[in-house]
Amino acid sequence: MGIRMSNKAVRGIISASFLVPCMLVHAQQPADRNRFDSLYVKDYSHILTLRAYISTKYNSLQLTAGNGAKDLLFRPNNKVNFGVGASYRSLTLNIGVGIPGVNKDQDKYGETRYLDAQANVYTKHWATNIFLQRFKGYYLDTYTKDELGWQQASFYPTRPDLVQFNLGASTVHIFNNDRFSYRAAFNQDAWQRRSQGSFLAGGYLTYFHLRADSSLVPVQLLPQFADGLQIRRGGFLDLGPSAGYAYTLVAGEHVFITASMVFGAGLSFQRAATVLSAEREDLRTVAGLGWHTQVRAGAGYNSARYFIGFSFNQENIGYLIDERSSFHWGVGNFRFNVAKRFGNPAAVLDRSLKRL
C-alpha cells in the first residue's frame, strides 16, 4: 500500500531537513570569547574613553634583621604627576608631567634621579604588569640622622650613592572572565554592574640590581644586622608561578570596591657582594627560594559615561638571606582618575589603529 503526499508537503519536509541541521550547527558554535556577560560587565572598549589623572609611582628597598631591630627602609624622593590619557580598543596612551610647586622637597628627602616606566595591561582574559625602573638617590625612612650620627643638609638621612635597576613582568589569567573585569576598575573602559570575583593563576619573571659606595647597613648599625645583609652590590633573578583571587563589590550598580591578592614562590638566583672590611668584600653566587606578592585595589563610581575613582598597584619581591634575615624590594603606583566616554569615534581612529 503506497502513501500519497502532495507536492506542498514534500517541499515542506525537504525544507525542514535543511533547516534542522543548520539550527544544530548554529547552536554548536561557541560564543564570542571576547564578549562579557552584559548583565555583569558592560564593555566600552569599542568607544573612545578620555581621562585626567593624578599619580605617583614609587619604589622601595628593605632589609629586615629579624632580631627586633628596626628595618632599614630606603625610599626614593617620589614625584607627583598630572596627566591625561585615552583608551580605544587595544590602545591606551597616557602622558603625565610633574605638578609645579608640589615636588620641591629635596631639602627633606634629598634628590632622586630616575627612569620609571610601568605598564599595566588589562584584557578580558589576562592582567599583566610590566615595569622598568632606574633610581639613583634614596633616603632612609626608619632612622634619623641623630641615630646614625650623620651630618647632612636634608631632614632625613640620605644615600645619594645608592643606585638600583629593576626589570620585570607578572601576569595572571582571569578564570571568570565573562563576569569579572579588571578593566572596569583599572582601565576605565568597562563597567562592572554586579558583584563578582575570579580565581587567578599565572607567573612572574623579575631582575633586580643594586650598587652603592659602601654597605647598605650604616656603620653604627652593623652589630644589629647579619653579615649577609651588608650588601654593597648585587643582582637578583627570580621566576615562578603565582595564584590568587580578585573580587569587586558593587552597590547600586555604580559604586564599587575592587581588591586583588596574588601570591607566588619560585627560584631565586643571587650574586651579591657583602662588605667584610674597608678593603675587602665577599662575592657569592647562590640559588634559593624567593617569593612574590601582588596587590591591586580600586574604588569609586562607574557608569555608562562617567568614571571617578582611585587605583593602587604594587609588586613585592623578597628573599631569605639566612634563618632570620630577609631582603625585600617593591614597585608600585597610585592613581586618581576622572574619565568620560564619548560614544562611537570617527572612522579615522579605526583606520589608524589598523595601520598600527
Q: How do the helices and strands line up, and which of them pair or pack?
A:
Layout: H1 7-28, E1 41-43, E2 49-64, E3 72-75, E4 81-88, E5 91-98, H2 106-109, E6 113-122, E7 126-140, H3 145-148, E8 158-174, H4 183-186, E9 190-192, E10 196-211, E11 231-251, E12 255-275, E13 281-302, E14 306-320, E15 326-341, H5 347-355
- What Rg do the Cα atoms give? 27 Å
Judging from the principal axes of the Cα atoms, what is the shape?
A: globular
Number of strands: 15
Integer tally of domains: 1
Structural class: mainly beta
Physical arrangement of strands within the biggest beta sheet: 2-3-7-8-10-11-12-13-14-15
Summarize the structure.
The protein has 356 residues and is mostly beta strands. The protein is built from five helices and 15 strands.
Structure characterization notes:
The chain is mainly β and about 350 residues long. It has one domain. About 10% of the residues lie in helices and about 55% in strands. The chain has five helices and 15 strands. The chain has helices at about 5-30, 105-110, 145-150, 185, 345-355; strands at about 40-45, 50-65, 70-75, 80-90, 90-100, 115-120, 125-140, 160-175, 190, 195-210, 230-250, 255-275, 280-300, 305-320, 325-340. The strands form two sheets. The chain has a ten-stranded antiparallel barrel with strand order 2-3-7-8-10-11-12-13-14-15. The longest helix is centred in the N-terminal third of the chain and has 22 residues, at about 5-30. The radius of gyration is 27 Å and the shape is globular. The N and C termini lie far apart (about 70 Å).
